[in-house]
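Need a sequence for this fold. Nothing fancy.
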């Protein structure tokens, strides 16, 4: 009995410590973003940003101000984008379909400075993967919006679990309100860590991997990268990409296999945690998960087959820059 209690205590301590570490790192980004958004609101800057982005966002059925949310997400991370979204949401009256379109675009193109940097270390050129993620996010957003309009699906008003008040409070009240939001974000992180650990314990993560493996075989994702791709799809690009970086430096994986694997991971990673975050904002799984996976699989299916026929010289010149291998030390005699 004592051992079980100790194990439970250790489990809870681990969840808490991990959540604190993650939250502190996120707050370093979220707090400055929150202040910037507030300043822009006070001086009317949001209107100019919205006006500049309106033509692009209107193509996917969104108001121009949501372009600021997407830009914030791309330059920082999903959590900062969530904060920007809740700050700009009052008075917009978005539908569930619109929120799903926005959050799906956020899932495809977010944390670009960090995540594109990870793929670069594996050899994929920044201009290629960065452009690909931007174009794919926009294309998927447009396709999803058209599908929802055609089917008249998810056209009801969006419901958000935590909506900021519409009134304009004093700076003190605004600060208190933002602190409350940071606390809410912390407990969302705790809940996600707990859920992921439970999924690992009861075998949900393993089940997802078993379901995805035959699909990756069909897409012709090589066996040498498959385990790493599965890790990235379930847990996150940083984890799967980190494994690929290691193997790329060891020279154990073909460069075209690396390219195809990272294209898939760039469009479709962290299927559990990131998807759940967007569900909190009101996004629907039809777009966040199922549609996004189908879109990514179709794109990768053709990418793999196209890359196979690209001459190595052109591949290295335009798409891939082979990383310097780790020197192999000779075994002492």
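Here you go.
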């Amino acid at each position: 009995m004592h051992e079980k209690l100790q194990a439970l205590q250790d489990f809870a301590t681990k969840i808490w410590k991990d959540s604190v570490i993650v939250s502190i790192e996120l707050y370093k980004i979220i707090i400055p973003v929150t202040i910037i958004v507030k300043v822009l609101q006070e001086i009317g800057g949001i209107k100019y940003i919205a006006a500049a982005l309106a033509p692009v966002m209107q193509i996917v059925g969104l108001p121009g101000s949501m372009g600021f949310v997407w830009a914030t997400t791309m330059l920082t991370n999903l959590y900062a984008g969530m904060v920007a979204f809740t700050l700009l949401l009052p008075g917009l009256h978005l539908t569930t379909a619109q929120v799903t379109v926005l959050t799906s675009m956020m899932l495809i193109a977010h944390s670009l400075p960090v995540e594109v940097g990870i793929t670069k270390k594996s050899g994929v050129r920044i201009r290629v993967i960065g452009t690909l993620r931007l174009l794919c996010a926009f294309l998927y957003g447009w396709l999803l919006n058209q599908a929802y309009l055609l089917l008249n699906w998810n056209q009801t008003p969006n419901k958000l679990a935590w909506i900021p008040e519409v009134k304009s409070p004093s700076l003190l009240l605004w600060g208190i309100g933002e602190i409350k939001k940071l606390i809410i974000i912390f407990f969302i992180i705790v809940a996600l860590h707990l859920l992921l650990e439970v999924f690992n314990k009861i075998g949900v993560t393993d089940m997802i991997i078993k379901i995805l493996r035959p699909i990756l075989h069909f897409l012709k994702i090589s066996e040498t990268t498959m385990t790493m791709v599965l890790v990235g799809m379930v847990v996150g690009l940083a984890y799967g990409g980190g494994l690929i970086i290691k193997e790329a430096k060891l020279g154990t994986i073909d460069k075209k296999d690396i390219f195809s694997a990272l294209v898939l991971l760039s469009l479709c990673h962290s299927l559990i945690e990131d998807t759940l975050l967007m569900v909190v904002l009101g996004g629907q799984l039809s777009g966040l998960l199922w549609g996004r996976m189908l879109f990514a699989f179709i794109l990768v299916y053709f990418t793999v087959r196209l890359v196979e026929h690209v001459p190595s010289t052109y591949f290295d010149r335009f798409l891939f820059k082979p990383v310097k291998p780790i020197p192999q030390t000779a075994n002492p005699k």
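For context: The CA atoms of residues 250 and 331 lie 16 Å apart.
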